[in-house]
From TrEMBL:
It is a multi-pass membrane protein. It comes from the Bacteria. NCBIfam families: ectoine_ehuD, HEQRo_perm_3TM. PROSITE patterns: ABC_TM1 (PS50928). InterPro entries: AA_ABC_transptr_permease_3TM, ArtM/GltK/GlnP/TcyL/YhdX-like, Ectoine_EhuD, MetI-like, MetI-like_sf. The chain crosses the membrane at residues 20-45, 66-88, 187-206. Signal peptide: none annotated. One of its GO terms (molecular function) is transmembrane transporter activity. This is Ectoine/hydroxyectoine ABC transporter permease subunit EhuD.
Length: 218
């Protein structure tokens, strides 16, 4: 039976874990974007060797589970003297994993820029840096906003995996509360509601960014 008193009693404890979930997602997404863009640029314009190496890396990361990658970062790398906190490991794991997906989004956006824009840049004798930052990326990024937003929402729902490397996020907190009281329904239901609220708020934010870009292009 649902117990409202118990649900209201544990809600503050769940809310205390909310910043951990939000922080891991936002920082992981930012890292994924920072890593994904150069991967896309190298794959598109890095020559045969660079393109092949990036393609192999992307396929390797996308073809292995995120959970396995988190285990390697947290349990294997310290054996070789590379150790960071569980939270930082989770952010790095999320960032590396999703950078491969986001790189494909960036690559698709770059390839969608008309060839005439490249030709115009060459005709104006613009350098590579000016061409990318002033012409190509400003046209490639706006159409990618909805897809990038989808990955942000997905990353929110992937954060419970961080509990496997001892990060005390929402789901891990709910498990701990349930193990003490043997009442899991209220804890897991509240976690589901909180994840829904985060995802819905993210979708509204993404929609706002999309509308902003649409207004700028008109």
């Amino acid at each position: 039976m649902w117990d409202w008193n118990y649900a209201l009693d544990i809600l503050p404890q769940l809310l205390k874990a909310l910043p951990m979930t939000i922080g891991a997602t936002v920082l992981g997404f930012a890292l994924a974007c920072l890593l994904g863009l150069p991967l896309a640029v190298i794959r598109y314009a890095g020559g045969p060797i660079g393109s092949y190496m990036v393609a192999a890396w992307v396929e390797f990361i996308r073809s292995t589970p995120l959970l396995v990658q988190l285990f390697v970062l947290f349990y294997v790398l310290p054996l070789y003297g590379i150790a960071v906190s569980p939270f930082a490991t989770g952010v790095i794991g999320l960032g590396i994993h999703y950078s491969t997906y986001i790189s494909e989004v960036f690559r698709g956006g770059i390839e969608a820029v008309p060839k005439g824009q490249w030709e115009a840049a060459r005709a104006l004798n613009l350098g590579a840096r000016r061409t990318w930052t002033g012409i190509i990326l400003p046209q490639a990024v706006p159409p990618m906003a909805p897809v990038l937003g989808n990955y942000l929402i997905t990353m929110f729902k992937e954060t419970p995996m961080l509990s496997a490397i001892t990060v005390v996020e929402l789901l891990q907190t709910a498990k701990s509360l349930g193990s003490v009281s043997f009442r899991y329904v209220e804890a897991f239901t509240l976690v589901g509601c909180l994840f829904f609220a985060l995802s819905y708020a993210s979708s509204l934010l993404v929609r706002g960014v999309e509308l902003h870009f649409m207004k700028k292009t008109k």
